[in-house]
Amino acid sequence: MPADDFVFPPAPQASLAVQGTDARFPMRRIFCVGRNYEAHAREMGKDPTREAPFFFTKPADAALDTPCTIPYPPQTEDLHHEIELVIAIGKGGRNIAETDVMDHVWGASVGIDLTRRDLQAEAKKAGRPWDWGKAFDNSAPIAALKPIADVPSVEQGRIWLAVNGEVRQDADLADLIWSVREHVAILSQSMALAPGDIIMTGTPAGVAALVEGDVVTGGVDGIATLEVTIGPRA
């Protein structure tokens, strides 16, 4: 549609960097899988049994390339880090079979699901949506994507996060309650996936608070690493 057909200029296309090229991956939506590691479910006071996976979303423009510096977000006193394997969808589909999921995956990376934990806790207590705790500006820093043909595995490999050099989260993708193949297939039963969709696959145990000035590093072995600095309060 020509630009003149809009009442004001459309927002720029949200996108992510791609390793080894100047090309960018156009983003459509960000889906996040909740409580997908047993140890994290326990630290959040939940039963880690294999219940059906659940999902929440972030806006595509909450994502940003790393390394980066982001302001400490407003309206929170308890900003938490959650390191996650990131999956990028390159081929759409509905009711995708588990055996076919990897044919729909364009690439993978690592990201941080930043969480205003105090606002999330208030929402849980009141039985309200999590949006204000999860879907705020700059809440999804994501490292450059690696094409799936170059990714050694999305089923095993160390996933870790450190703050100021001190490791806080340290696990293996094999610890996922619902594997990438499983939770992507289940998500596609609820809505059609489309090229540009991003899936953040859940975080291991060790989530904790961040403060202004913290330098966060993390990665998934063989896929990507990232660095995020928490700047002054917005």
TrEMBL record:
Keyword terms, alphabetized: Hydrolase, Metal-binding
Coiled coil: none
MF terms (GO), sorted A to Z: acetylpyruvate hydrolase activity; fumarylpyruvate hydrolase activity; metal ion binding
UniProt xrefs under Pfam families: FAA_hydrolase
EC number of the protein: 3.7.1.20
Superkingdom, natural source: Bacteria
InterPro entries, sorted: Fumarylacetoacetase-like_C, Fumarylacetoacetase_C_sf
Positions of the Fumarylacetoacetase-like C-terminal domain: 30-230
Protein name: Fumarylpyruvate hydrolase
Gene: nagK
